[in-house]
Amino acid sequence: MKGFARAAFLAALFLFLAGAEARASALSVSSPAFKDGERMPRQSGCEGGDRSPPLQVVGVPGEAKSLAILMTEQDSPRGQQPLWIAYNLAPTYISIAENQPRTRQLKGGGMQIALGNAKPGYTGPCPPAGVTRRYLIEVFALDSLLDLPENATKQDFLLAVEGHILVRGWITGRYKK
């Protein structure tokens, strides 16, 4: 009987975790500029103007209070380097226009963080010449607004969203100079 109880517990735990994972990844993120896993357009990179790509988000739950974006370079020798953090976007902001301004505050109350550069906002891919790297753009639907200082880091952002993610989704792009 002991083995049956353990097996039943493990099965229940597996189903619970599978349901939590399915819920946590239920947000659909796409871009009219590139398909998931494909090359990002030149204008999104450092040699093309650092224009943030347009994004479309589907599946935002009604109870969401805000959306947040985290874009990271996946293949950097220095680890996952953040290139864009935007937060407190309205949960109805499901079509994010290309070329978001390089300002701390966005229209509609959204905010952006300056990540190791002088200006807040999007910093485009800029791998070494001839090297292809992957870039992950994650969108989070949150159950709250975030209160982050102007000099917040990626770690500050990740701590702030912890426990507040209703659903998340992502798109991955590749870029080569």
TrEMBL record:
Keywords: Lipoprotein, Signal. Transmembrane segments: none annotated. Residues 33-55 are annotated as: Disordered. CDD domains: PEBP_bact_arch. Residues 1-22 form the signal peptide. The keyword Signal applies. The keyword Lipoprotein applies. It holds the Pfam family PBP. InterPro entries: PEBP, PEBP-like_sf, YbhB_YbcL/LppC-like. NCBIfam families: YbhB/YbcL family Raf kinase inhibitor-like protein. PANTHER family: PEBP (PHOSPHATIDYLETHANOLAMINE-BINDING PROTEIN) FAMILY PROTEIN, UNCHARACTERIZED PROTEIN YBCL-RELATED. This is Lipoprotein LppC. It comes from Fundidesulfovibrio magnetotacticus. The gene is lppC.
